[in-house]
TrEMBL record:
Its main location: membrane. This is Immunoglobulin superfamily member 21. It holds the Pfam family V-set. GO terms for biological process: heterophilic cell-cell adhesion via plasma membrane cell adhesion molecules; homophilic cell adhesion via plasma membrane adhesion molecules. The gene is Igsf21. It comes from Oreotrochilus melanogaster. Interacts (Ig-like 1 domain) with NRXN2 (via Laminin G-like 1 domain) in a trans-interaction manner.
Amino acid sequence: AYLTVSIEPLPPVVVGDAVTLKCNFKTDGKMREIVWYKVTDGGTIKQKIFTFDAMFNTNFSHMENYRKREDLVYQSTVRLPEVRISDNGPYECHVGIYDRATREKVVLASGSVFLNVMAPPTSISVLAADTPAPFSRYQAQNFTLVCVVSGGKPAPLVYFKRDGEPIEATPLPEPPAGAGNWAPRNLLHRDLDDTKVPKSEPPRGLAAERDPVTEIIPETVVSREFPRWVHVAEPIYYFRHTHAPVSDGTVEARATLTWTLNPQIDNEALFSCEVKHPALSMPMQSEVMLVAPKGPKITMTPTRARVGDTVRILVQGFQNEVFPEPLFTWTRVGSRLLDGSAEHDGKELVLERVPAELNGSMYRCTAQNPLGSTDTHTRLIVFENPNIPRGTEDSNGSLSSHLSFRLVLALTLTVILELT
């Protein structure tokens, strides 16, 4: 008896597609059984997904069509109505026939096929590395955009565009030294004249790291003038692409684009991350516009603060859409904050139990990202509190212990006099 088995090859399929596995075999013997297996764990485990037993003439599971096409030619099909990522992998079709010479002997043969299940990416997002981060007009900064693409199989092709044009970038096998890491430095909120600005220029491309410089900065108006290190020429971009497998069989791809930021030409530049994938009919994309903060909107609660109240000053938004995330720094003009600190970081400044001497105090909020900075001022007006006698609060807005003692003593004497 002879027996030949072959499975028709399959093109890659997309998650959700219906797939039919076809096993063709020829024989001059009598059918004994057909068994389909899903092979897992590198071939160590074979999961039985379909059985046809000619002895008992029984069918189990997915067999859709078993028929005799012509003499000695057969086909067994297994249909997967809606494939999933977990269906990816090899399948085997095992056929057994009785030998024509003796009914006790069974002849076996098998064929295999690999089912390649693709999945389009499910999400794409662009973010800035190391944010919030300060703005510096006096030192070149490296800036890194990160594009994260999740849910795809196989790994997608990821690339960046600027203002709709593809970016020609130098590939990097490893992250460049210092790329995307903001050098620690004191935040220079206010203007410096040219005599205080270093004249040496860093090399083009990735910004050279410098030691932070601490200077006493006079109180002046923020200037939009940029220093001499700013280059008008096209920036040099550096690109890195990595991908990591996820437990569900898909891949998370990360692409980074790093260059020396130029606030003059990069402000309001539109960057997009685009993804090509064989399971997509057209590229996916996500885009961001680099924008410096402008016109912070500040609210103060309560709107009518009284002595002893807790006052909250909050940045609620801007006149424009800002990217990347700004860094907020609060200072009190001409003095320290209520808690004695020179500045406070965060969107909200909380002043607990405000004393009367804070009436008229001015607070500055500096909002900045690597594209630029802006200052907004607000003045605190503190009204008298009828529940707190004038002149009895200390610097923390509470009654002094000396006055509290005198008040308790007076009340005690009053009660004694009434009793007598």
